[in-house]
Predict the 3D structure of the following.
Amino acid sequence: MLKKLFNWMLILGLILLGGRMVTAICFYFNLPFTTFFKDYALVSVIILIIGIIGSEAIKNQEKR
């Protein structure tokens, strides 16, 4: 159960990271694009970090 949660958080964090990258590219070229990913950048980084740390912790526990 916890493993699935961390994996989903990792996937969601990577999707939000991709959205932030697209937003930055559009901002650089002055193209109109949603600011959703820019507005919630801190939240998406936190989700990604928790997903990475949790996934690695579960992997290390399974190896033992």
